[in-house]
Write a structure and sequence with these properties.
Radius of gyration of chain B: 17 Å
Shape of chain A: globular
Radius of gyration of chain A: 30 Å
Strand order of the largest sheet of chain A: 1-2
Helix content of chain B: over 70%
Largest sheet of chain A: 2 strands, antiparallel
Distance between the termini of chain B: 54 Å
Largest interface: A-B, 13 and 13 residues
Oligomer: heterodimer
Number of helices of chain B: 3
Largest sheet of chain B: none
Structural class of chain A: mainly alpha
Structural class of chain B: mainly alpha
Distance between the termini of chain A: 100 Å
Helix content of chain A: over 70%
Number of helices of chain A: 27
Shape of chain B: elongated
Chain lengths: 639, 100
């Protein structure tokens, strides 16, 4: 059947591109490395669309490629499965990946590691596609780790920069913490059900004891929290912005970080059997959403604001999952992939235009120089803020509505607060960078030309054109496509999307809850309020932000310093571990090596002493013989 | 008829002279000659006991020893000759290649 072939073809294309660029990149493809990568991801996207069409008709099917591990009754085949959830993920991943590949052609132009970049990007796309196609938990885990590896490689892409190398390391280590929980969860599943196959596990899950299922779900959620940057494992994501901006857009906003959301949605059969775990998911999600939004309020680096915004939006998705709005959470994942990729790529375009990192307090009125970037960025911001009729509005309302309808009023309240904060921080950035009270040209006119040669983070080889300039079309085209999707992914798709996913995900128990409409209206009003407040503060200058900051110094410092979570980890985990490692090093060098070297030195000493007897002179040997003979004779005679 | 103890005493004296010769002399040829002295002291004992017991085994053994001795000398002299040609020396203390 053709649909079966499609499934393995989808990841096969990017893998082939990875092999080509990875093995031959330095010799053969060089600055044409984008061609194999683009072609591969483009073909994958086409296949993904075909799979989506097939999923609409046939809902779900599986392909077993070959037996991977077989030990007695424990049988793990390399099995790919497709259903509406997978199909949606495939389209999002390959679609956004294609646009990011295209964007990278312009953004990474002239970088020394050009083929390496595309090799990594293809490897990531392959891993992510395999992750969503996996038909069992073991395969899921393998590619779960693989995307983590790609993330590490791409964050540390500019590895000669210490901050980038450190950020890559941090991302990897924090993810390991989550993955450890994930691995334990899977092992517990295997022990209890004897299988890793999705269908088998989900069939047996309701029969397991309540406590076991809850524990399994919580462990799986630890893995999801690590990958999807949920509190308390969110610290790696903002640092991951050290990577190239297309990577931030693809991996750290649109696709990889949603793996945790996907996994929890995939395991809905387990989670619905464990209401306590669902509660934890919802609470952690809300907490993360509020906290990240609060941090984003005071950050000044454009990419960092977007990073915390991603953490916050992922929190919304987990809130949706936790309150049983499965389809709503995936819908938010879907819309978020478009508008957040758009915002990141837009940020990259701004950075490309000004030739370096974008500190929003040192920019202003860039709109007239970069009209395309500005327009698309505003569309993305409106979608993120959840303003009608942009895509984010519908998906966010779905989650908030489900939280309200499920009588989670406290969570709903905090989520609305976070939504208001979202609208404020994103428009604070928009007004500060593109419009606002300052004029960037007046602020630093000369350095704009000078700074251009280095091009800083943009890694751009200095084109010699001065001043702020609009990006090339290969970078703008993805922005326009994503902006279009940020509008169209909303209401035209809402109903069909939920119905489509409803075939595999349980529907939220929407009853007719009194006041639901008022609750949704409240969310809109709060979002508009945030937007307006940003407008009066950063556009009109009616409210002075510094005075607000000065009136609540404690709160301001908390937000500015990201709630001191990094410092807390540094003091409680990193430093003690480092001290332990140093102590272990000394112990190893002094005690362990001391014993080993002592044994060797003793043997050598004795050897050196005894070697003196071996003079090489025949007469000495004869003397020893004679003495020995005399001794033997003496003993014999004496007795 | 001489008492057997005289033979034994002579054998002991010859053996001791040979032993001292091997230990104190440095010329390989002289050392070899001293070894011969020791071997023949033993032979003397064998023959003496053979005579005492009026039994020929000791005699036969002495003859065997002389035969083996001849073969051994052949090998030993060949080695000495080769060593002498190689190094031009006959000093046993100069051959210390196997020093530990």
């Amino acid at each position: 059947m053709i649909a079966d072939q499609l499934l393995w073809l989808i990841p096969a294309f990017p893998f082939a591109a990875f092999l080509v660029n990875g093995l031959l990149g330095r010799r053969l493809t060089k600055n044409a490395a984008h061609w194999p990568a683009l072609a591969a991801v483009g073909l994958s996207f086409v296949c993904a669309l075909l799979v989506l069409r097939n999923a609409v008709e046939h809902t779900a099917w599986q392909v077993t490629l070959f037996t991977w591990i077989k030990v007695g009754a424990f049988d793990v085949p390399l099995k790919l499965s497709a259903d509406p959830l997978t199909a949606v993920m495939l389209v999002v991943v390959s679609g956004v990946s294609f646009l990011v590949h295209l964007y990278s052609v312009g953004y990474m132009h002239g970088d020394g590691g050009y083929p390496r970049f595309f090799a990594y990007l293809s490897l990531f796309t392959f891993s992510m596609l395999m992750l969503v196609l996996s038909g069992n938990f073991l395969l899921l885990y393998v590619f779960w780790e693989a995307v983590g590896l790609c993330s590490y490689l791409l964050i540390g892409f500019w590895f000669h920069k210490k901050s980038a190398a450190d950020a890559g390391k941090k991302a990897f280590l924090v993810n390991r913490v989550g993955d450890f929980g994930f691995a334990l969860g899977i092992l517990l599943l295997v022990v209890n059900t004897g299988s890793v196959d999705y269908q088998e596990v989900f069939r047996l899950a309701p029969q397991l004891p309540q406590a076991t299922v809850t524990l399994i779900c919580l462990l799986l959620f630890v893995g999801a929290a690590g990958k999807s940057a949920q509190f308390p494992l969110h610290v790696w994501l903002p640092d991951a912005m050290e990577g190239p901006t297309p990577v931030s857009a693809l991996i750290h906003a649109a696709t990889m970080v949603t793996a945790g959301v996907y996994m929890v949605a995939r395991c809905n059969a387990l989670f619905t059997a464990a209401p306590t775990a669902m509660q934890v998911v919802a609470v952690v999600g809300t907490l993360t959403a509020v906290m990240a939004a609060a941090i984003a309020l005071t950050q000044t680096d454009l990419k960092r604001i977007m990073a915390y915004s991603t953490v916050s939006q992922l929190g919304f998705m987990f809130l949706g999952l936790g309150v049983g709005a499965w389809a709503g959470a995936i819908f938010h994942l879907f819309t978020h992939a478009f508008f957040k990729a758009l915002l990141f790529l837009g940020s990259g375009s701004v950075m490309h235009a000004i030739g370096g990192d974008c500190d929003i307090t040192r920019q202003g009125r860039l709109a007239r120089h970069i009209p395309w970037t500005t327009t698309t960025f505003i569309v993305g911001s409106l979608a993120l803020a959840g303003i009608f009729p942009f895509a984010g509005f519908f998906s966010k309302e779905m989650i908030l509505g489900a939280a309200f309808a499920g009588h989670h009023y406290v969570l709903f309240g905090f989520a609305v607060l976070a939504a208001g904060g979202t609208a404020f921080y994103v428009f604070r950035a928009v007004f500060s960078v593109f419009f606002g009270l300052r004029d960037a040209d007046a602020l630093h006119p000369a350095p704009a030309v000078e700074a251009h040669g280095g091009h800083g983070d943009a890694g751009h080889g200095g084109h010699g054109h001065g001043g702020v300039h609009e990006s090339p079309w290969v970078m703008l085209a993805p922005l326009v496509v994503l902006a279009t999707m940020s509008v169209l992914a909303g209401w035209p798709l809402e109903h069909g999307f939920v119905q489509f996913l409803g075939r595999v995900l349980p529907a939220a128990e929407h009853g007719a809850v009194p006041g639901a409409l008022a609750a949704e209206a409240l969310a809109i009003v709060v979002a508009l309020g945030g937007l307006t407040f940003a407008w009066v503060t950063y556009q009109k200058g009616i409210v002075d932000p510094d005075r607000i900051a000065a009136s609540w110094p404690r709160l301001y410092a908390l937000s500015k310093n990201k709630f001191y979570i990094d410092e807390f980890y540094d003091a409680t985990i990193v430093r003690p571990l480092l001290a332990l490692a140093r102590w272990a090093l000394r112990f190893d060098l002094d005690v362990i090596d001391g014993i080993v070297n002592g044994v060797a030195a003793t043997a050598r000493g004795w050897g050196a002493a005894l070697a003196r007897l071996q003079t090489g002179r025949v007469r000495d040997y004869l003397l020893f013989m004679a003495l020995g003979l005399a001794a033997v004779l003496g003993v014999l005679l004496w007795r | 008829m001489v008492a057997v103890s005289w033979y034994l005493a002579l054998g002991a004296v010859l053996f001791s002279i040979g032993l001292v010769g091997v230990l104190v002399r440095r010329n390989i040829v002289v050392m070899l000659m001293s070894v011969e002295l020791m071997v023949n002291a033993v032979n003397l004992n064998l023959v003496a006991f053979s005579n005492l017991h009026a039994h020929y085994t000791g005699l036969v053994l002495a003859l065997f020893v002389i035969g083996v001795e001849a073969a051994e000398l052949g090998v030993a002299l060949a080695i000495i000759l080769a060593w002498h040609r190689h190094s031009g020396r006959l000093d046993a203390d100069s051959a210390t290649l196997l020093k530990g």
